[in-house]
Design goal:
Order of helices and strands: HHHHHH
Radius of gyration: 18 Å
Low-confidence stretches: none
Largest sheet: none
Distance between the termini: 29 Å
Structural class: mainly alpha
Number of helices: 6
Length: 150
C-alpha cells in the first residue's frame, strides 16, 4: 500500500500547483519584461518562479523517497531562511506598490507603467515564500525524525 502522504491525491495537487506556479512565473517574466517592459512585474515573476521551483523540487524529492539524498538538515534550514528573507522583501514591496497605486490613483493601463502588476507579482512571491518556509521546515522535521540516529 502506497504511503498516503507521498503518493496521494493531495501530493499530486501540491505538485500540480507548484508546477502551475513555475509556468506562470516564467511566463510573466518573459511577457512583462520583454514585451511590455514592466521590469517590476517581470522580476517579481522571476523570483516567484524560483521559489515555486524550490517547492516543486522538495515535493518531488519527498514523493520519490529521495529527500535525504539531496538535502541535509542544514540545506533545508538555508532554504527556510531564504524564504524568510524573500517574505520580508516581498511584504515591503507589496505594501509599497499598492500604496503607490492608491495614493497616485494609477490605472492598470498602460501595462509598462503599472505598479499594480508589480504589486500582484510581489504578492505571488510572498505566497511562494510562505510555501518555501513551510515546506522547508516540514521536510527538515521529517529528516530529523526519520534519518537521525539520536
Amino acid at each position: 500500500m502506497e504511503d498516503e502522504n507521498r503518493g496521494g491525491c493531495f501530493m499530486r495537487f501540491k505538485l500540480a500547483s507548484a508546477g502551475f506556479g513555475m509556468l506562470a512565473g516564467i511566463s510573466v517574466f518573459f511577457v512583462f519584461t520583454f514585451q511590455y517592459e514592466n521590469y517590476h512585474a517581470g522580476l517579481w515573476g522571476l523570483l516567484s518562479f524560483v521559489l515555486a521551483t524550490i517547492v516543486f523540487h522538495q515535493h518531488l524529492l519527498y514523493k520519490n523517497y529521495r529527500l535525504d539524498e539531496w538535502h541535509t538538515v542544514h540545506s533545508l534550514t538555508a532554504l527556510r531562511n531564504l524564504g524568510i528573507l524573500t517574505i520580508l522583501c516581498s511584504t515591503g514591496a507589496t505594501i509599497y506598490y499598492f500604496y503607490t497605486v492608491i495614493s497616485e490613483e494609477q490605472s492598470l493601463h498602460p501595462l509598462s507603467d503599472s505598479y499594480m502588476l508589480g504589486g500582484v507579482w510581489s504578492f505571488m512571491t510572498w505566497k511562494w515564500s510562505v510555501a518555501t518556509i513551510y515546506y522547508s521546515q516540514k521536510y527538515k522535521s521529517i529528516l530529523d525524525r526519520e534519518y537521525t540516529l539520536f
